[in-house]
Amino acid sequence: MMLRIPSFQIAYPFEQSTSEKLQSVLFLSLFLSLLLILLQPFGFVATARWQYLLGYLCIAVITFLINYVGIPYFFPQPFEDQSWSVVKAFLFFLYNFLQMGLWIHIFNTLIMHNDPSEMASGIELLITVGKALVLGGVASTFLILIRYNWISRQNLQAAQDLNEQLQDQLQQFEPSPKQVETLTLVLDGKALDLPRHQLVYVRSEGNYLSLYFDPAYSKSPLLIRGRMKELEETLSKYPEFFRCHRSFMVSIPYISSTLGNSQGLNIQLRTSTDKLPVARPKIKALKLQLKQRMTKGNPFIT
Question: How buried is 111 (Cβ within 10 angstroms: 0-12 exposed, 13-18 middle, 19+ buried)?
């Protein structure tokens, strides 16, 4: 299969889990070490001066760990899947390599050349940072290309697997507006009775929740004050409701299909053209939910 080249403006999910971040750091470190051995951009023979190579790799690993773990932890919003893109990923990589260039310049002057006076040399600094950015451009382009195609294949396969389960089993659980059963939500200290079988999905918007219903019941969403975590706890006793994303909860019988590409996995609904995102950690949970519940003996809606 040929690698597809992504557009710079296309969405490109940031590594959210710790394992994904560590994999990217490891890959970049190994790829960078290969470039250092082959190109020797900082003027040493790697086989004879391996301690310098080890020093550069330590700088790379520490820099990426701080930026990949620290910055998203304190400033998570810019790194969310819906706002991250290929161009942002590329620029973030270059920012990492810019930092590496600064630290390598200090390392060279203090350790490799043992001449602290070189630290004040603007020319040496520009040369070192320039080399680091060139290496970073090559490494980051390669990583983005590989990861983009890997995510595309993973999400496409996940969508195919889920669609097979939906086609085989979900048809016996057609939601009907004629079914009448109320569920009681207790949000923000207030109780609210809602029709269980007509609630399609919920979207979190700050301190408020937008509840979307079957169009046969209501065409307008209901806006109430509350938090998604509180709602999830309240609906945990109803097996058809699944939190597919930090900001979305869906009633599984209203799912018609799933769509997967490099930008992620999305849910297509039976009753509208709205597409709901599925967070990557939730994909396996959704498969398991379908496998456990969607059988004749254990339906979602009882």
Answer: exposed
